[in-house]
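thought: fold this chain, then report.
action: predict
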Amino acid sequence: MNIYKDLEDALYNYASALFPTLAASGRIIFPFQNGPEPATPYLLLDVKRLDAVGREQSSHFVSVDVENNGTSTTLQHYVADVRFEFIGKYDNNTTLGDLAQSMEMNLRTPRGYELQRANKLSLFQYEPIERVKLKRETDMYMYMQLDVEFGFSVQHVFDQDWIGEVHILRGVYSDANNPPDYERVTTLNIPE
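observation:
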């Protein structure tokens, strides 16, 4: 189980459904991959922060499969701060703006909510789009940044030892109100 990979996969699936032409041409990437820069414009998905929030929700019962292997599940919720960076040369400035506005709009549409739900994401809030110019050695580039806070849930499945049955044949209890040799026999049935 890799929580960051699960989150990155969810974000990639979400973004590629919104921008299939960028995805098909390999122009949706993550930072720090040490690869060549794709043709512009492209989308950079940057997970800035991932924090566990609230208390976990753990199953109290063990699920047992046909091979008598037991598992239990724990659900943990996270808040993910994600930056969507649309990057391109200055001459395609309007294209970048259109892509960023499309992303922002789709965060709040029924289709956007459906895609979020399908990828275990839930929109919490987002900041206005920020336009950033960046001069490189060879050309002027433009960045459109959209910072979004998503809720993200992960289910952990753990191997769990379990008890198949319990037999109490005889319980002996002493009671101050009864004679010293008093025995109480208890029968306990635990259903499977």
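thought: worth noting. Helices lie at 3-18, 20-24, 93-106, 110-118.
final: tokens above.
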